[in-house]
Amino acid sequence: VLRDGPAAFAFANEVEKAPRYERAKTDTIGAMIHARKLFDELPVDAIRKSVLMSSDGPHNVPRPNPKRLPIVRWLHEQRDLMHEQRIELDALVISNLEEELFKYFQENVI
Fold first, then answer.
1. Which of 2, 80, 88, 99 could form a disulfide with 50, with the two C-beta atoms 3.0–4.6 Å apart?
2. SS3 (DSSP) at 4
3. Residue 110: C-alpha distances to residues 7, 28, 30 (Å)
């Protein structure tokens, strides 16, 4: 529990010093599908539905694609389905490795 500003800064400094773990796989589409499923399974009707994604790369995980859509079009379809279900989608983009990642997320995910 971070109880005050100095504790938050101390924690942030420790996080900044920690080695970065990279798996090199980003399943943006899977995250959106899973989030929609979880909201569908809620036992109550949520007043606000929000998903925060963090990513250090574009979608690059092979997954079943029944409609055989290009990846960017499939991302748009999943994003649109989230919007139809009134699910807010925000993203924290870790863009120190890929300069165009912020633009990619802005145009295709959020």
1. 88
2. coil
3. 32, 11, 15
